[in-house]
Structures are given as C-alpha cells and as structure tokens.
TrEMBL record:
Residues the record lists as binding GTP: 33-40, 84, 140-143
SUPFAM superfamilies, A to Z: P-loop containing nucleoside triphosphate hydrolases
MF annotations from Gene Ontology: GTP binding; GTPase activity; metal ion binding
Pfam family, one: Arf
PANTHER family linked: ADP RIBOSYLATION FACTOR-RELATED (PTHR11711)
Keywords annotated in UniProt: GTP-binding, Lipoprotein, Magnesium, Metal-binding, Myristate, Nucleotide-binding
Top-rank taxon: Eukaryota
Function: May play a role in apoptosis. May act as a tumor suppressor.
Protein name, UniProt field: ADP-ribosylation factor-like protein 11
Stretch forming the signal peptide: none
Keyword Nucleotide-binding found: yes
Similarity field: Belongs to the small GTPase superfamily. Arf family.
C-alpha cells in the first residue's frame, strides 16, 4: 500500500521537502478510532461538505480531499479511514506505515469506552514506525449532551504524558455538521510541516558531525 506514496527520490529529497507540501504528492493521513466514533462521517463531511448516512466500516474507505481554508488551502490529503471494530484494529499498523499524520477520532460522550480509546491510541503512538508522527485527536459529537471538552479529552487520553517531542492537537468537533473539522485539518497540516522541518534540520545536523 505504502509503495506508491513517493516522498521524493534519494537525490531530490531535501529540495522537495523545502518546497511547500502542497506542491508534492498528497499528504498521507490515516483516520483511526473506536467503532462508532464518527470517523467515516468526518471523512465524507470533509470530502463533500455534506452529511452522509454511513454504515460500520469493514476494511477501509479512502478519499482524496483538499484543504479549503487557512494555511492548508489547496493542499491535497489522501485520507485512509480504517474500521474501528476490535477485530479490525490489528490492521491499523499496516495503514500507519510511512504516514504523514494520524487523525484519532473519539466519541466525547462515551465515558465508558474512553479508557479503551486511550489504550488503542497509545498502542498506535508507541509503535516504532509511528515515532513522532503528528496526532490530531477529534473530540467528536460535541453537539450531544455530556460531551467532554478538548482539555478533558486530552487529560483522559494521557496526551500530556507523551513528552515535548510528540506533536498533537485536540480539536472539538461535530462531524455531522462539520464543526471543527477544517480547523483540525489545518492544525494537522501545521504539525506535519513542523515535523518535516525538524526532520530536515536534524538531518543537516547529523551530516555536519
């Protein structure tokens, strides 16, 4: 799957990275989260700017979307929305290899499964291939009573304990009407750009030694 995601050849890597990401191949983003968190609803709201009634994802959905506002306007994202049922979660790792960013969708009203969401998120973040990959957490379903705010979700998921090298942002959202999705996408884009810049600087520093 990841073989076609060209990040630039060995001879041109630095010059490509110094160009704006929007001039390169689409940014590769994987959307994860427990079943019924609202991943597919968020994906198609971003894609078509309308609500589509969805069914549980068995396997994955993949859509190319474009940022429409802020710094990521015009940037293409190839978003893989992977099923969140327990039997499908072992497949997540095959989608996160070589990814530019991860979107983790949480049902902010579902207190009973928040620990389960934390466990799956930490398992994903701590996989070696996902080392320091930027994470956007969508605290979804903010339109419903009892939805936890971004700060509470951040605390429950243990994101503050990951250390300063892990880039993350928690965005309150309502996928059904689209609230927060564009803002979240822009935050993810900015984190991806920051990660690329840090990687480039680290590469230059190591070459000087």
């Amino acid at each position: 799957m990841g073989g076609s995601m060209s990040k630039g050849g060995s001879g041109k890597g630095v010059s490509l990275l110094e160009a704006l990401p929007s001039l390169n191949a689409p940014l590769h983003v994987v959307m994860l989260g427990l079943d019924s968190a609202g991943k597919t609803t968020a994906l198609y709201r971003l894609k078509f700017d309308q609500y589509l009634n969805t069914v549980p994802t068995i396997g994955f959905n993949c859509e190319k979307i474009k940022g429409t506002s802020g710094k990521c306007k015009g940037t293409s994202f190839l978003v893989w929305d992977v099923g969140g049922q327990e039997k499908l979660r072992p497949l997540w790792r095959s989608y996160t290899r070589c990814t530019d960013g991860i979107v983790f969708v949480v049902d902010a009203t579902d207190s009973e499964r928040m620990d389960e969401a934390k466990m799956e998120l930490m398992r994903t973040i701590r996989a070696p291939e996902n080392h320091h990959v930027p994470i956007l957490v969508l605290a979804n379903k903010q339109d419903l009573p009892g939805a936890k705010d971004a700060a509470t979700v951040e605390k429950i998921l243990g994101l503050r304990d990951l250390g300063p090298s892990q880039l993350f942002h928690v965005q309150p959202s309502c996928a059904i009407i689209g609230d927060g999705l564009e803002d979240g996408l822009e935050s993810l884009y900015e984190m991806i750009c920051k990660k690329k810049k840090l990687s480039r600087n680290n590469s230059k520093s190591s070459k000087k030694r």
